[in-house]
Automatic annotation (TrEMBL):
Similarity comment text for this entry: Belongs to the rogdi family.
Listed Pfam families: Rogdi_lz (PF10259)
Name under which the protein is recorded: Protein rogdi
InterPro entries to which the protein is assigned, alphabetical: RAVE2/Rogdi
Length: 265
């Protein structure tokens, strides 16, 4: 190795040590700030956020096939007045309601909150004075963060839709007042920044089960904020991961001494 190569290697190692000593902690601090702010947008108790925020929404479809006026409290629809036209008997209007005695649980919200809480926990478990010794240490934490943040985002963006028979047997459907006829069902779910309401009708056509549906949706402002922050946090994680992957090519790059504290509880 000539002098220029030695100097380049020394400079690279110095930069690597600075990244581990200073930049990683700075980025983890920025991530923590973003994720706590994200947590405080959730309507459920989460990382110091009291939760139980209440919002009212009106969902309608054109032409006047479906209408729902609802109250979203935390992760549950605590009140709703629902009316929709039976799809092949358009003169017939079906009405039902949701009340506090049997709220409609939106599990996606709580699932996303749980994954976000886990992500914040990964950062909380890193002592601010901890000296990282290798890129692998940091990459392990970043990969855990990315996994939790992706699951939190996916819980809101990619709803797990139930099969119609599973939906009809669900606790949510049984809480409607009055109960719907056996060939009708409704569903509420989150998709990205919207709350979706769908009405289903089952029928048998020449011995084959047919499912017709109509739906309405409305924007939920806090969901837009949450998704923006989750996406921003994932981008920050990916940038740090990419930088560390460059240094991880140099297996002899380690920091000599460090404290005996642990990264995770």
């Amino acid at each position: 190795m000539n002098d220029n190569e030695k100097e380049e290697a020394a400079n690279l190692k110095e930069e690597f040590e600075w990244v581990l000593r200073e930049e990683v902690h700075a980025i983890l601090h920025q991530l923590h700030t973003v994720l706590v702010e994200c947590a405080h947008r959730f309507p459920v108790p989460l990382y110091g956020n009291e939760g139980q925020k209440q919002d009212k929404f009106i969902l309608t479809s054109q032409p006047e096939q479906l209408k729902c006026i609802l109250t979203l409290t935390g992760d549950s629809i605590t009140h709703a007045d629902i009316s929709f036209k039976v799809l092949r008997q358009m003169h017939l209007m079906c009405r039902t309601s949701i009340n506090q005695d049997g709220p409609w649980k939106l599990q996606q919200i709580q699932d996303a909150a749980n994954h976000l809480q886990q992500a914040i926990g990964y950062i909380d478990n890193v002592d601010k004075h901890y000296v990282f010794r290798s890129s692998e240490e940091v990459l392990h934490i970043i990969q855990c963060l990315i996994g939790s943040l992706q699951r939190a985002r996916s819980a809101l963006v990619l709803p797990k839709k139930k099969a119609i028979d599973e939906l009809m047997k669900s606790r949510n459907m049984k809480a409607l007042s009055p109960n719907l006829p056996e060939d009708l069902a409704i569903s509420f779910y989150i998709q990205s920044s919207k709350l979706i309401f769908v009405a289903y009708q089952l029928s048998s056509v020449h011995g084959t089960m047919r499912i017709d549906s109509c739906q309405a949706d409305c924007a939920v402002p806090w969901l837009s904020d949450v998704l923006f922050m989750l996406t921003a946090a994932l981008h920050m994680c990916q940038q740090l991961k990419d930088k560390l992957c460059v240094f991880s090519q140099y297996k002899d790059f380690t920091v000599g001494s460090r404290s005996a504290s642990t990264v995770f509880n």
